[in-house]
Amino acid sequence: MTPFKYQKTGRYTAQTPGGLETIAASELKSLGAKEAEPGFRTVEFTADPEVLYRINYKARLVTRVIAPLTTFKCRDRDDLYRAGRSIDWPSFFTNDNTFGVFSNVSENHNLIHSQYAALCLKDAVVDLFRDKTGRRPDVNKTEPDVWINLHIKKERGTIGLDTSGGSLHRRGYRRKSVQAPLQEVLAASMVSFSEWKGDIPVYDPMCGSGTLLCESLIYACRIPPGFFRENFGFRHLPDFDPKIWKRVKAEADALMKTPPEGLISGSDMDAEAIRAARTNCGVLPGGGRISLSKKHFKNIESLENRIIFCNPPYGVRMGREAELGMFYKDFGDFLKQRCKGSVAYIYFGVREMLKSIGLKPAFKKPVRNAGLDGRVAKFELY
Q1: At a CB cut-off of 8 Å and minimum separation 6, what does 191 contact?
Q2: What gap in Å lies between CA 108 and CA 235, rounded to an integer?
Q3: What is the C-alpha separation between 182 and 284, in angstroms, rounded?
Q4: Which residues does 337 contact at the CB level (< 8 Å), separation at least 6?
Q5: What is the rounded (10 degree) CA torsion for 76, 80, 81, 86?
Q6: Which residue(s) pair with 293 in the sheet?
Q7: How far, in whole angstroms, is CA 354 from its chain's centroid?
Q8: Are 76 and 111 in contact, with CB atoms under 8 Å apart?
Q9: Consecutive 10-residue averages of pLDDT for the chain (382 residues)
Q10: Do the Cβ atoms of 204 and 291 come closer than 8 Å?
């Protein structure tokens, strides 16, 4: 059998939100990846199977890892269909598995819509199975057993297998939610930007459903982000080695530890948010040690000598944008007056509100979240 492209090159593509490419590349290197090269919302890297499994299980800053199967000249639907038919799909999954296709198409004159391109590839997969086995696997557009990735730019196409088995931001701890929650990978990036070592207390005064608190716990206590994940796509690779995967998982799980009391705390003015945060934090090992309370930030006496992570409400969450400016001014006054010696890392979904908070940021980093071109800002509170 002709080896697939990832087998010949050892190269994979990790996807990450815009703005996180550089720190995602650093994380992948720390997990054993070689030649990690940041691109546009991607990191290309080299890995052996052990490193591939470890990245999928432990990486906090990437959303998917794609194993390229073939690259091809893609002028139109016929080229795409032929490429899809050329892959031995039964070596990846059977008729009893479900599959889905997610695609991204740009600058191709004949394939304009990503959904149409995905449908063409789906037809090729189904027809190949039907010709070889007399049956066809079912398509599942939300939770398939196998995700197939299609990327077309101009006349160059790549078909790959999602080795993650769905977006890695779905850690499995979010059982309850509130309006417009912070995406898990973005929350993890704020922890990474802070260079926090888990040595001083962390507090979130507007914790919502607890995503920043959970990601702080995952980092400080070395909890693999994939700890609750049952379906990894790399299990469907024809060269999957279950012995190596079992060892990688056991080594990562053995590093987990329990957080000290008082290390991670949070509050929110909304009782429903606190209930959601308590549920979500409690899912994680050691999450019962996260302290939570119902409280408006104005009623917090002080937050001195801490790391403060925060995703304040923005327009889509508050519903009345006219109130935003005053809200951020009040929060900025709170930081100046009651948080001396602390360092705050704040996500601004509406980046214009940086001017309203009344503090000079030590840095501003562009990070996209759910379509918002936001900023993560650092404030040193002397």
Answers
A1: 60, 212, 215, 216, 219, 309
A2: 33
A3: 18
A4: none
A5: 140
A6: 267
A7: 25
A8: yes
A9: 92 96 98 97 98 98 98 97 97 97 94 95 97 96 96 97 97 89 94 96 97 98 97 97 98 97 96 96 97 97 97 63 83 97 95 92 89 91 92
A10: no
